[in-house]
Design a protein that fits this description.
single chain; 347 residues; alpha/beta; six-stranded parallel β-sheet; four-stranded parallel β-sheet; 48% helix
Length: 347
C-alpha cells in the first residue's frame, strides 16, 4: 500500500489464507505450522464441522514482529499499538511455540510478558546439498578480486543494522599487527543482498565506500553486490574466515554456511552467534569494537594452522547441532509432542 501499512497488510493476507484453509478449501489438516505472523492463529482454530477436530497449531517465532520496526512518530505508535496487542494475544493461542535460538527465547519472554508458555528451541539449518553441488560446479566469472593469500569475507544485506563498517575499520586496526609482507597478501570482500530500490541500501553502500577511502583501503576492499549462490559458495571456499558483524542477531544463518564449508567465524559476542560459535574452538567471539576484530583477524594470519583447526571443528559442530538431519529429527519430535497434546485433550 504505497510502501506503508506493511504489517497490517501482512496480517490481512495471513488471515485470508487461514480462513480459506479452514472454512473453504475442504482440506482437513492435522497440524498447521504458522511462521512469524501470528495473526492467523485464531482463524486456523475455526471449525466448520463440530464433529471434525480442529488442527493443532505450531507457531515458529523467528523474532517478535513488534521489535522489527521503529516508532519515531505519534502516528506510528498509535498504528502499532493494536497490532502489537493482537500479536501477543494471537501468539498465546498456539498449541506449541518454537523459537530459533536461546537468545530469541529470552527476547520472547521479555516482550510477551502475559504468555506463560516457555517456547522450545528449534535451530534452523541450511541446504547443504545445494552447497555441495555448487562447490563441484565451475568457478564463477572473474570477480576482480586481487590475488591474495588471506581473504576475509563479510556476507550481509546492505543495511545499517548489520554494522558492516566494523569489519572495514577492523582492517585498518589489523595493519599494525602485521608486517609489510603479511599486509600485502590480505584482502576483504564485502558482499550481500543489495536492492537499489531501497534508499537505505543505496545510502549505506555509499557510506561504506566513503569509509574505505577514509581508511585508505581502496586497494584492500572489494564490494560484490547481490552475489549468486555460486559466487557465495566460491567466496566461502576461498576465504580465510567469515567476519560476521551484526550485534544481537536473532540467530544468523551465514555463520552456519561458513562452518559447513570448514571456515572459522569471527563474530560479535552477542545474540545467536553465542550459540552457534564455540569461542576459540570453532571461531572467535569479540566485542563489537574494531580493535578487537582486527586483532582476531591478525591471529588467523599469523597462525594459518589455527584457521584450519577452527574450520574443521566448526564443521563437526555444524554436523552435530545444526545439520538438516538434526533439524529434521527435532522437527519430528516437536510434531510428536503436539500429537500427544492433541490426544490428551481428546480423551
Amino acid at each position: 500500500m504505497f510502501g506503508r501499512f506493511v504489517a497490517l497488510c501482512a496480517y490481512f493476507k495471513m488471515v485470508y489464507a487461514a480462513v480459506y484453509l479452514t472454512l473453504i478449501s475442504g482440506i482437513k489438516p492435522t497440524f498447521v505450522v504458522c511462521d512469524q505472523v501470528s495473526a492467523c492463529i485464531p482463524f486456523l482454530r475455526l471449525r466448520w464441522n463440530p464433529y471434525i477436530p480442529r488442527p493443532r497449531v505450531l507457531f515458529y517465532c523467528h523474532f517478535p514482529d513488534q521489535l522489527l520496526t521503529e516508532r519515531l512518530t505519534l502516528f506510528k505508535r498509535l498504528y502499532r499499538w493494536p497490532i502489537d496487542w493482537f500479536e501477543q494475544l494471537t501468539t498465546n493461542l498456539a498449541d506449541k511455540i518454537l523459537v530459533n535460538s536461546e537468545f530469541t527465547r529470552g527476547v520472547f519472554r521479555d516482550t510477551f510478558k502475559r504468555i506463560q508458555t516457555i517456547p522450545e528451541i528449534l535451530y534452523p539449518s541450511i541446504n547443504a546439498k545445494l552447497f555441495d553441488s555448487l562447490r563441484r560446479s565451475s568457478p564463477p566469472l572473474d570477480l576482480k578480486i586481487p590475488e591474495c593469500r588471506h581473504l576475509f569475507l563479510s556476507i550481509n544485506r546492505f543495511e545499517r543494522k548489520k554494522k558492516i563498517g566494523l569489519v572495514i575499520s577492523a582492517m585498518r586496526k589489523m595493519k599494525p599487527c602485521l608486517d609489510e609482507t603479511e599486509w600485502k597478501i590480505v584482502h576483504l570482500v564485502v558482499t550481500g543482498g543489495y536492492d537499489e530500490r531501497l534508499p537505505e541500501a543505496v545510502e549505506y553502500l555509499a557510506e561504506l565506500k566513503e569509509l574505505v577511502t577514509k581508511e585508505n583501503l581502496d586497494d584492500k576492499v572489494t564490494f560484490v553486490l547481490s552475489p549468486s549462490d555460486t559466487v557465495k559458495v566460491h567466496l566461502l571456499s576461498q576465504c580465510t574466515a567469515l567476519v560476521y558483524t551484526p550485534s544481537n542477531e536473532h540467530f544468523g544463518i551465514v555463520p552456519l554456511e561458513a562452518m559447513y564449508m570448514e571456515k572459522p567465524v569471527i563474530a560479535v559476542d552477542s545474540g545467536g552467534p553465542r550459540e552457534t560459535i564455540a569461542n576459540d574452538i570453532t571461531g572467535l567471539l569479540c566485542p563489537a569494537i574494531n580493535t578487537h576484530f582486527g586483532v582476531a583477524m591478525a591471529r588467523l594470519i599469523k597462525d594459518p594452522g589455527l584457521s584450519k583447526q577452527l574450520g574443521i571443528a566448526g564443521k563437526k559442530r555444524f554436523t552435530k547441532f545444526f545439520s538438516f538431519e538434526t533439524f529434521s529429527a527435532n522437527w519430528v519430535k516437536a510434531l510428536e509432542s503436539l500429537q500427544e497434546i492433541k490426544e490428551k485433550k481428546s480423551q
